[in-house]
Write a structure and sequence with these properties.
This protein is of the alpha+beta class. The protein has eleven helices and 14 strands. The chain has two domains: 253 residues, 4-Layer Sandwich (L-amino peptidase D-ALA esterase/amidase), CATH 3.60.70.12; 120 residues, ArgJ beta chain, C-terminal domain (Ubiquitin-like (UB roll)).
Length: 397
């Protein structure tokens, strides 16, 4: 399966999208800050939401609207998160669904809503209403939508992938406050395949765990994190469930698309200059492999070393040793950019200058083996730069 980086949420048949500038976003690149996705027909829908217990108003509304596992449209604004805004915030999110429903001629309960941006501010509902009215939907509007959901992102993130006779499209936003439990991260996925509701949710949850949940920029989990997947079945064919011939292909395509978008989030981390990929093997189970990989991507000392192209592998073994996870000390190995730097509890004979030169590339790979099992996992992060501090020191003011 080949990822098409030019693809978007409107690559699958039967989806339209569009965006406008409503006046909410005052930072970041681009002048779009409100977008809508619409399917021509009702979709089977699935979602994964943040584990932040002080979640945004949109989470309340979407959980209610997804009770029947159906939806036909999504509206999203950037600039204001509509989080920690109490009963008014929930009412405003519902009003957005009402307005989009009226515009598209569908039930408000079939509209999902997301907001991203500054926490603790109320939505300017007059601007929101005018923006919703102004959005023009088209089959070419997927890239506009991807731009409209950005906050401190430096570029839109969108792609598509084909499986069988079907297409999966998607976009994501995220640059800071990234540490998904489910990162501030939103992702919207669409497909023209007919997917059974239970299988759709099961497959999305697994794909998120293997992709978005293994991204970290700064260790913080947003109250707005949401991944939504809409399947409209517009290309026809028998419904795909876990026992269908195309089940494995759909699962692989969804995981591949989510992984691509997750890596783009890490690559575009606030102030980042490098993508950090951590591969862990030899763990007792998948959960421990993922935990170890996530610990690596959140170590400020390691992220700083990556930024400086410093092959200080001591920062890696320190994370391994403090992790509290199962390891075999004699079996632990560490490699940086393909060069083994530690094994058998001691350093190897490696060329520090060659490793440092390799670390000056746009992508830095760290491989860790724990020596106690066969489970593996990969996580993604970025380097820590002075620009990250500058962005977040000035973000609100």
């Amino acid at each position: 399966m080949a990822i098409d980086p030019a693809g978007s949420v409107t690559s699958p048949v039967g989806f339209e999208a569009g965006a406008t500038y409503a006046g909410m976003k005052t930072y970041g690149d681009g002048k779009l800050d409100l977008g809508i996705i619409k399917s021509e027909t009702m979709c089977t829908a699935a979602a994964v939401h943040t584990r932040n217990r002080l979640y945004s108003a949109s989470i309340d509304v979407n959980r209610a609207h997804l009770a029947d596992r159906q939806a036909q449209a999504v509206v999203c604004n950037a600039g204001i998160a509509n989080s920690s805004t109490g009963a008014r915030g929930i009412a405003d999110a519902r009003t957005m669904c009402d307005q989009v429903g009226a515009k598209l001629g569908i039930r408000p309960a079939d509209v999902l809503v997301c907001s991203t941006g500054v926490i603790g501010h109320y939505l300017p509902m007059e601007k929101v209403a005018a923006g919703i009215d102004a959005v023009e939907l088209s089959r070419r509007g997927g890239t506009q939508f991807a731009s409209a959901i950005m906050t401190t992102d430096t570029r839109p993130k969108h792609a598509s992938v084909a499986f069988g006779d079907y297409v999966l499209g998607g976009c994501a936003k995220g640059s800071g406050m990234i540490h998904p439990n489910m990162a501030t991260m939103l992702a919207f996925l669409t497909t023209d395949a007919p997917i059974e509701a239970g299988f759709l949710q099961e497959t999305l949850s697994a794909a998120v765990d293997a992709s978005f949940n293994l991204v970290s920029v700064d260790g913080d989990t947003s109250p707005s994190d949401t991944v939504i997947l809409l399947a409209n079945g517009a290309r026809g064919g028998p419904r795909i469930g876990k026992d269908s011939a195309l089940a494995a292909s759909f699962t692989a395509a969804l995981t591949e698309l989510c992984t691509h978008l997750a890596k783009e989030i890490a690559r575009d981390g606030e102030g980042a200059t490098k993508l950090l990929e951590v591969r862990v093997s030899g763990a007792t189970n998948t959960a421990e492999a993922r935990n170890m990989a996530r610990l690596m991507t959140t170590s400020y000392l390691l992220k700083s070393a990556v930024h400086g192209a410093d092959p200080n592998w001591g920062r890696i073994v320190t994370v391994i040793g403090r992790s509290g996870l199962h390891i075999s000390e004699p079996g632990v190995t560490v490699a940086i950019c393909g060069q083994r730097v530690f094994e058998h509890e001691q350093p190897t004979e490696f060329d520090p200058e060659a490793v440092a030169a390799a670390m000056r590339a746009d992508e830095v790979l760290i491989e860790v083996a724990l020596g106690v099992g066969t489970a593996a996992a990969t996580a993604w992060g970025c380097d820590l730069t002075a620009e990250y501090v500058s962005i977040n020191a000035d973000y609100h003011t």
